[in-house]
Amino acid sequence: MLKEQIKLIFLAKLAGTPVFDPNGDRVGKIRDAVTIAPSHSHSPRILGFVVEIPQRRRIFIPATRVTSINEGGVFMNGSLNIRRYQARHGEVSLLEELLDREVLLRNQGKVVIVEDLGMELTDSGDWRLTLVHVKKRERGLRKDLVSTISWDEIEFESRLSPVPAKPAT
Q: How far is CA 102 from CA 45, 48, 136, in A?
């Protein structure tokens, strides 16, 4: 029985998910998702996934090789390139760079902390980073306020970027 393709998934939940080759053999587990340095005008396309294979080696699987993501795992076609993953200029490892990091809300100028990132499958078959789950500390409240917002509502500068993030006002 085939499980239904997921159309929206949060990356922190995806991390640790098993990856299977075309024969159904487990090849590793998801550790991160990679995109190009995100633009503020649109949802960045997911280029691929960092997968940890045996001996804790990390490799890159292009998103174009992923045929399905469902509750059973991530399924891919084609062969594996087992060369160790190393980010190229302009690439961003989303969980590594953004999880638990402070970013700025574009319209409010307030600082929030990224708790998770949501990616959606488009009609064209691309995965796009569309949602950000954030928490905001409010004075006088015991609990943090949490919400899920659109990617284009935050200001973010990659740690690899020579331009510093805008200071909170």
A: 22, 24, 10
pTM of the model: 0.84
74 and 31 in a common domain: yes
pLDDT digits (tens, 9 = 90+) for 118-153: 999 999 999 999 999 999 877 766 677 889 999 999
Domain span at 53: 8-95
Residue 2 located in a structural domain: no
Say if 119 falls within a structural domain: yes
Q: Any residues with CB less than 8 A from the CB of 115 and at least 6 apart, and which?
A: 12, 99, 100, 133, 134, 135, 146
For residues 53 and 67, membership in a common domain is answered with yes
Please state, in angstroms and rounded to a whole number, the distance separating the CA atoms of residues 84 and 57: 7
